[in-house]
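We emphasize that the prediction below concerns an isolated chain of 334 residues; any contacts that depend on oligomerization or on bound cofactors are therefore not represented. The input was used exactly as deposited, without trimming of termini.
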Amino acid sequence: MKTSYIIGLVIVAIIVIAGAYYYTTTLAPQPQPFKVAAIYISPLEEPWNQALHQSLLKAEEELGIDYSYSENVPDSDVARVMTQYASSGFDMIFPHSWSYHPVTNTTAAQYRNIFFAQGSGMNMDYGNNTVLYDYHIQEAAYVAGAIAAKITNTSKIGIVTAFPGVGDVDNLLNGFIEGAKSVNPGVNITISYINEWYAPSKAKEAAAGLIESGVDVIYSERYGVFEACKDSAGNIVAYAFGNVVDQNNASDVVIGSAVWDPYPMVKELIQSAQNGTFEAGEYIASMSSNTSKFVWNPINAAKFPEAKAYSDTLVQQIINGTIVVPLNFGPPNP
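Result of the prediction step, given as a token string:
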């Protein structure tokens, strides 16, 4: 009788312990992923958007974040979208447009427990939770300009860009112009504005007009230029440079690309927000940090070996500080 009683007690104890173990292991709260949202004013295909989008996808894979995004969000609707993310449990928001910065200022002040990374802009109220970043790749644009001046046969080079008077864009144009004039002070540079952020057909039309005027090398600050650089028979009538992302695979007309790699910044911002070391302020890209770079198209590196060698020297001089390409947000003076 005692033996049966003891056995029963042991069985009951095992059941209780197993039950406690089950509930402890299955019902213990699990850590929630760090939630990041990005808001894009234009389609993801636009290079400025591609650069951040690819970096956040990489962060999702390597850092385990939960990434969501909205594209084609006009200025008139960004306040609603930003507030929706802020009130839905997101930890960090990337408003990825210059024109969003006034809304980011207001929203970030209302949600000090959320981190905001504003993609270009001005007059930010950084508080303790806001970073301003930009594609400060004027160094890479300088190298592109120098190459353009080296390879042009007409001494006429062009730029196809979006709007006049946008500081971060003007910074790139000024870098390109300065690089070209460092090689040939008398080079003729023409800027063509399409007055839209993303309009490939307009960019193509603008490039065709430049080529018709004798331009044979174009800085494609906007997407769509490459399609104009060959005639109907497929012959190259002008060369071009990619911008922001590596566009070298797009066409053999691409000499190389002035590239912005935001992933080191994205990784730093996310990890610092997670471990409590987040610092508000500005994030500046540079060649020395490997977040700004010029990437040659291998096809054209072989075709223009002298320009390739010259550009390699320029890059090293920029990295070691022998050549300084300053930020210049003023109106370009070609």
